Write the structure tokens for this entry.
Amino acid sequence: MKDKKKAVVLSSGGIDSTTVMAITKQEGFEIFSLSFFYEQRHSFEIEAARKVAEVMCVKRHLILDIDLKKIGGSALTDNNLDVPKHRNTQRIPDEIPVTYVPARNTIFLSYALAWAEVLQSYDIVIGVNAIDYSGYPDCRPEYIEAFERMANLATRAGVEGKTKLKIRTPLIHMTKAEIIKKGVDLGIDFSLTHSCYDPSSDGLACGECDSCIIRKRGFKEAGVIDPTKYIRY
């Protein structure tokens, strides 16, 4: 039997990364999921990523510790900065909020690239989205294209011309509603996922941060019941 192709899938435990994992699995890849505890405000998303990896029967789920709190500059790593609430939904994609973590996707993709080299995998999958998102600059197609070019200049496989490493972004031009519908078609249990930036101490979603607003709107537009437990809805 021919060995399956391997894919490193970045997993945050959220809707997007879980959906791209399901898409990648459906495409016949052997999944190696990669998550990060970067001293963010809470660990609920890591627990969600663990559950998703177990349900998806991934080959291996690796969780790496990176202390981005020492760098700071984001409400997700600095408890002295407030997570924005009730932002205008029309303006969310046009403003870079304080929840942006400096260079986060570049850092995450770099680790994924290193692991992919060791695994001899030529596919890295990330659930970035440039339609319904919080306006982060490292979610745009031009950023992904630039990173892919760099990856093929910086790796042995790329330099030796054996193969071309690909950064796959299946969701980049999809709305959140389209992503949710795709996930439902693939049989995803979205109750396993976590999206909130600022949950309660027992893991209830705030319902008011950008991520909660986008999540709630996505389920509503998709015509799918949102399984999320909110503090207030």
